[in-house]
Amino acid sequence: MLELLQRAAPFLLQALWMTVWLGLVSFILSLMVGFVVAVARMYGPWPLRFPAIAFVSLIRGTPLLTQILLVYYGLPQLGFTIEAIPAVILTLALHAGAYTSEDIRGGIQSVDKGQWEAGYSSGMTFAQVLRRIVAPQAVRVITPSLGNRFITMMKDTSLASVVTVVELTRVAEQIGSASFRYMQMFVIVAVIYWVINSLLSLGQAKLEERMRRAYR
Amino acid sequence: MNSQNSNLAGVPHTHPAGVCQIRAENIHKRFGNLEVLKGVSLTVNKGEVVVIMGPSGSGKTTFIRCLNFLEEPDQGQVMVCNLDVACGLRVASRERSSKIRQLRVKAAMVFQSFNLYPHMTALGNVIEGPIQVLGMRRDEAVKSGEQLLAKVGLADKRDEHPSRLSGGQKQRVAIARALAMNPEVVLFDEPTSALDPELHEEVLQTMRQLAGDGMTMIVVTHEVKFAHEVADRVVFMADGVVVEEGLPQEILVNPQHPRTRSFLRLVDH
What we know:
The structure holds two protein chains of two kinds. Chain A is mainly alpha-helical.
């Protein structure tokens, strides 16, 4: 086992970096997607609102794996060829963005209507009230669910392995098949995922604690 | 239709140029099938304190909210100083929205439920508008914000968040926040109604002081004593119209309209 670990270490390290990078970039993009979709859905005129609702419904109603395969293997048939890594990032960002948009929508709606009125009555624009008054309060409400989304995202990056992206799960599979030691490799990789997500949970708890203090 | 005479209290109709006047003309507002305002007009001169009273459902809160477009009137016209916004067209244009924002700066609002920004300190609440909307430099905004907090007696609460303040203190911060925009008129929407009785006085005291400074104020309230002492004019509303309007001693002591009489019997004074 130790010897296997030693041999696999350089590959695992590289794969770990890929996994974390995939998760982080996709998560940040998903926040932007979620915010835009949430605002379009709540405040957009109907030509924006309808696509936003349809987008959320389609994404939530279909499996992530299907979506990844569709983007990577399906789109080239229509003339859109996307490299594996961008394809995965795109899909993860859109997928998580649909869920995040619902979190963000809930968070924004949880802010008292009087806050909008106070902002508007002092002459602020929609964007100013949203940015300065409503969003900072919504963020505190949304943080726990966004933390969970991030953790889910980290695990979902494993699906990138099916479209040839060399991340943790694919490395485990490759080394496992080359050495016939699948069990050991998948246990190692599972532990790595667990450690990443435990660290994230810890960070999430710290962040939530800080946000609770901020009102006092 | 609109037979209310808004010239009862000896207020002259014409004013020298440059003096700011707040005028609402023939304001109509409907929520679904309910016609809340059936053509309300009001003219308030600079430095005047006008108290609007009336039973709940009379439309007084809707009316004052129409004055800074928290409710969009279905019909009518709102004028604050030289800013004139016509309603009823419902055509949202950039130009109109920008005019409404300018009008809101001149007509600051104090809410029944305070609506302080909970994520900001008392000072943060006061300087937010000046920095974001008026484009004031932060150090200037802080300086005048501190002065305003001192004026409402809360200089020492500068760095407290609203959750640490009492209701009366919150409302005083809200008043400071309104004043920070350097408005032409302050609109008060039942400023003491959400407060415990023992906290009314500190807010009313702040408002008296403001009136004494010559601030133009339109106040929706049930505080008869306050109206008596401070108001230059009392407007009585019922069922979406102004039924009676005049000097406080006329309206509050010797009301002519039966709706005013029955209402005043009900509120203690």
